[in-house]
Fold each of these.
Amino acid sequence: MKRRLISFKFIMTIAIIEILCYMAVDMYLASMTDIAAFFETPYSKVQLSLTFYLFAMGVGQLFFGPIIDYFGRKIPLILGTSLYALCSFAITTSSNIELFLLYRIIQGLGVALIYICLISMVRDVSKGKVAAKIFAILITIGAITPILAPAIGGYIDQVFGWKAVFYVLFILAILVLILSLFILPETLKDEKKVIINFKNIFIIYFNIIKNMNFLIPAFATCLMYMFIFGYISGASYSYKEIYNLDSKTFGLVFGATGSALLFGALLSTKLLQIVNMKQISIFGAAIIIFGSVVSFISSNISVVGLDGIVIGFFISFFGLGLAEASLFAIAMSSQKTSVGATAALLGSLQLLLPATATLVAGYLVEISIFYWLGLLFILSILAFIFTCKVFRIEKTQF
């Protein structure tokens, strides 16, 4: 049954939906100054839309996780995609920044529902190395799309204006809705459904999070996501304000960095056939540290400067691509029941903590680029430490 469900169409549809989810994260990044001018509000207030969106995604998953363990995956996925589409259109009708932020929050909740349905579907039909390979694709998309999307959004904004970015998201959401209806099956079997009892939700989450086989790899991946979103938050200011890149070049730099993560994740799927998850994860985490050191040192050498910083991030993101999928699969495989709640908790942690990183990184980079790069170096060290700790407590085949 599981092999029949894991088809090429299934994986591709899941991947396309995840692309849609993460395009909304920051596809409008290059448009933020235009949005601020449109609403006659400070840039910092527009930037809150990214933080609020991530918080909404994180908190929403905690609420929706137990629900999809009862109602299944497909119907909630359709509802979440519909909400995404409606909010994408509603954002273009906003008359003030407050409405803009409100629609972003609701959009984040819709994406939260979509995301946990996707992760739970994968876990329903796969486990072990098979799950790790699929998660490698999804994690790569989840990390690379927020880096590539601003480049795409920048071109759209330059030609058609900032509202066109959200019109594109609306159209894509409608297309994804049609794909979901006709291609994706319901993957949750009736015998595995869990009766909803909201009084027990926190007990369920507590039981999951107290399991060290879940908590340690989950926190390791959270630190890696903090690195990614810390980079996104600080790069916009540092590249454009400190190194004076224009919007087009800025987008190209984002794209180049994101491609490294893709290469790392693709290589990890091949390496999983010949080496174990421990070797890939620790090696990838070590590469993240090396890249962050290169970036930090380059920022102190005027001759190297921006080129060295970009090269350092390219190296770090390659390491991220190698390490994340295995850690993600280990965390998800720690639970045999309440898979939706597990996916919700893991996804929530991977958004709430990075949301705080966007605030800290954005604050530090305005003070000094050295503080920003120093923060990312600390995050890389912590990610390596927790990755090593994963395999000290892991007692399974991983």
Amino acid sequence: MLELRPNCEACDKDLPPSATEACICSYECTFCRSCVENVLNNVCPNCGGGFTSRPVRPATAHRQNTSLQHQPASTKRVHTPYTLAELKAFSDSLKDIAPQAR
């Protein structure tokens, strides 16, 4: 089950569970759409993979035990250990290779 991390790992923008601008890679590294598009060039700085929109977990259980109330989002904030220059250099080295070919 996805953690639904609460923030962008690069700029620390809040990304609540209902955020439609949250993007994740296959390891659930979490970044806001602005950082993914303008800084990372759709390259995860942790694994080199691409990003997709993070799904929104329903706030209301439409089926038994399937909602934020039953599986709450994480409150642990995660921050990248890399500087903005390091993020940009890494993404620039891979941005011209499609995610499925990296």
Amino acid sequence: MSSRRLDVPLRDRLIVALDVPNMIDARNIVAALGDTVSFYKIGLQQVFGGGLGLIDEFFRLGKKVFLDAKLADIAATVGNATANIARTGAEFLTVTGDAPIVRAAVAARSQAHARKPLILAVTVLTSIDQNDLTDMGFTMPLADLVEYRARKAKEAGADGVIASGFEAARLRALLGPDFRIVTPGIRSADSPKDDQKRVMTAGEAIRAGADHVVVGRDILRSDKPADKARAILDDIAAAL
């Protein structure tokens, strides 16, 4: 794999997933992490718990926001939603990896004369393995499906993809150093996998080619979340 990679500040390579029940818990996590963490993911749990209101609040604190909305609808609806999201200043936005959806999101951002959000296409969730794909009716090997969806997403104009660390090296070689790879399903070596199936440590994912790693439970469950975040950042720094 090429040693070239996007020039991203170390702190921005770690994205903490605010997968907590409500806005109060989210604020408490951000306060506990302080200056250690600069980038947060707001997912569906927070979106439907009032979490969109946190975006401006986090910006005032100097934080970046990844809106993990996984938009999936007809192109016009996705475009309209993306135009509204562009006004929030969110850094990243996820859409499903279907080409018409990606194209609609990219076009809407352009029409809004916005540089953000970067459009990230979901390939295959890290909670899914080959057996799950077979149950869904897919016959293609999982890694091949991830590669196919990533390639189609790039052709449609996506800025990057969401993919596990197990596919990161293959995607980096295929898609080049400037295509952003964001890897969820990150666990410390001694942590349980929970509902994830294709997991890696942060350092392993970065070495494989990921630009950013998304960490939730390892930090959220820690008695000392800032210390845990610093340890993950140290792992990332060593991998770089």
